[in-house]
Amino acid sequence: MAEYLRRRQLYAAERGDRSRRVMITAAAGAIGAAVLVGLVCGAAGLAGGTVAQVAVLTGLAVLGVLAARHYRVPPEIEAWRVDAEAERRTARSLDRLTRAGYTVLHDRQLADSAGNIDHLVIGPSGAWVVETDAHRGPVRQNAAGVWAGKVPLRAMLGLVAWMGEEATGQLVAELPSGWQLEAQSVVAFARTEVPNGLALVDGVLLLPMAGVADYILSAGVVLRPIDVAMLVDVAERVFPRYEVAGPPPSWPTRSRLRGLLRR
After folding, report:
1. Which terminus of the chain has a lower count of CB atoms within 10 Å, N or C?
2. pLDDT grade, residue 243 (50/70/90)?
3. pTM for the complete prediction?
């Protein structure tokens, strides 16, 4: 969610950087088109009033097209919006765990990393690193890897597994000596189902979004309430909320935005 807001801010800043130039170009294009159409209509022998009306309508049409192109949301930003909405749905589904003694931390930043944990769930059954996937299409596995529709998930699953390992290491480093903990990495599929309801791939648990909370509840009790409280306290310190800061006014946003959209 936070990553989508950051990228949307960058896009808005980049659009603001070029607004003046686009306005001048649009005005020049509209005037040029209106003059050209007026000349053609005049040469065709149309009445002066008709020529003026056609020229004005042509200029307005050109302005409308250029404005629509300038203000349209790029497909990459729209894809991030879809991902953010899927994360919000996962967050609402997980928040009901609080009634069973769980704490759910959303949008948490990993130390020494540009990435963030979508949801960190801590409670009687341990620690869970939950990432949301919004791809459509059936989840399937073959010799080439795991797919959601036609989208390969190998890189994403590797990243989620790494995030679980990093979260485990960073938590254990701050806990008293003797703690045994392993955060379980989970991918919650928000827009497709998982065959047989769940799958385990390279240590990463694949579940439909609606089934994640129930699975966590059914995983058994491994932590006492005092252990849960201690782990939550450490997690809130180790993984601060992923902050979204707007770009400075002097930031060359265009080059930065292009770099983000190419990821």
Report:
1. C
2. confident
3. 0.69
